[in-house]
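Rotation project, supervised by the postdoc (A.L.). Task for the rotation student: set up a whole-complex structure prediction and record inputs and outputs verbatim in this book. Inputs entered:
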Amino acid sequence: EDQVTQSPEALRLQEGESSSLNCSYTVSGLRGLFWYRQDPGKGPEFLFTLYSAGEEKEKERLKATLTKKESFLHITAPKPEDSATYLCAVQGSSNTGKLIFGQGTTLQVKP
Amino acid sequence: NAGVTQTPKFQVLKTGQSMTLQCAQDMNHNSMYWYRQDPGMGLRLIYYSASEGTTDKGEVPNGYNVSRLNKREFSLRLESAAPSQTSVYFCASSETVGRPQHFGDGTRLSIL
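Outputs recorded:
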């Protein structure tokens, strides 16, 4: 059964304090790993797709990396506006069309 | 840029009532999805439509029906609402299955 586990559940950082969020997954034939950002009262906003181990994607202060068992979302010198819940999801070859989501990491960045 | 539009944004129902949640996308996407999001459970797929004219069950389809009205619109129906269906419902769309999904801002549904 495909499964996604995110850690930590919650993370508090000071502005400028870099850190990483973890997404561990088990999936039969990874077809894609997706990172989303969700603000309170809003729908998830797409950030990155990673397709194979070793792949990296960057956007502003965010960098996503992928290994065969996990993905990391690195946040460099975060700002208060980076505060949100970050969701990870995977799509496996046995679940065409279906994304399996983790429960998310809620990030709070204090000024 | 409307993207994915969901209506209504909020709704309160009594147990046993029925209602339809509406979703429309203006990105010419082929695939559309319905999720529910509950505290501690994350996002769970209810139904999806890989392309116009097709629908398939997701992880939690019981108690729901869907209709892919045309390429733009995908509705979710609760025939006889139950308190366990209290949740936030999100519609999403993607170019095709496997491509990044883009979400609406949700319908917050309470069933008393």
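Student's summary: Chain A is about 0% helix and 60% strand.
Supervisor addendum: Residues 37 and 86 of chain A are 5 Å apart (CA to CA).
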